[in-house]
């Protein structure tokens, strides 16, 4: 079994996990705007004072987002630094997918459902992605997107008579702004945030498929790098 360190800081939570898919130690703290100050303190707590070089890690897993721009950069930078120093690869895992896996683990079920995973983008928009559950496995249904909550749409491939809809994540704090067909069709769990221990399974599959990355190639997934503002060139000359 691969021994991994996982870091996700895409949301208000700073989530860390050390171990494998079946057994791990984890720390999960909801701590808005404190990730950078406390990351290495919590890592030392997670390591129980051990030198990371003695943990026999196979890879560093990072939450690639989408989510807080600053949070994503913190996770990527930490993963790169640790991976370089230990000589191991990195693996990026979708924070939206992790959020779905966290929900499924915490509810101890794999419902016959399509799940909309949403993270509040903080500027009147949400990051989102639809997922389906096939044979108890999480499968992306379409690409990740960023949109105002009022522009969210039901999935095209929703077999209404057979499959319920569930919404998870901080984006559902904006549920009142979502279209009635969304609000009335799904059950929302807005308090779910991605937990690092739920990154192990997709990371392990990626490593088995030879998809581990050189640390230099670790990249955040911003989904859209410019949202709601203009570059200086686009603003034109200031009078």
Structure description:
- The protein has 239 residues and is of the alpha/beta class.
- It folds into 2 domains: 4-95 and 194-217, Nucleotidyltransferase, domain 5, CATH 3.30.420.40; 96-189, 2-Layer Sandwich (Nucleotidyltransferase, domain 5).
- Helix content is 26%, strand content 27%.
- The chain is built from 6 helices and 11 strands.
- Strands 6, 7, 8, 9, 10 and 11 form a 6-stranded mixed sheet that branches.
- The longest helix is centred in the first third of the chain and has 18 residues, at 69-86.
- It comes from Congregibacter brevis.
- This is tRNA threonylcarbamoyladenosine biosynthesis protein TsaB.
- Belongs to the KAE1 / TsaD family. TsaB subfamily.
- GO terms for molecular function: tRNA N(6)-L-threonylcarbamoyladenine synthase activity.
Low-confidence stretches: 226-239
Identify the overall geometry: globular
CATH topology of the largest domain: Nucleotidyltransferase, domain 5
From the coordinates shown, what is the CATH architecture of the largest domain?
2-Layer Sandwich
Task: Enumerate how many helices there are, as a single number.
Answer: 6
Number of strands: 11
**In this structure, how is the largest beta sheet organized?**
6 strands, mixed
Query: Which structural class is indicated by helix and strand composition?
Result: alpha/beta
Number of domains: 2
Relevant CATH superfamily of the largest domain: ATPase, nucleotide binding domain
For the record, what CATH class of the largest domain applies? Alpha Beta
Mean pLDDT: 89
**Beta-strand residue fraction:** 25-35%
Order of helices and strands: EEEHEHEHEEEEEHEHH
Name the helicity range.
25-40%
Distance between the termini: 63 Å
Task: Work out the radius of gyration.
Answer: 18 Å
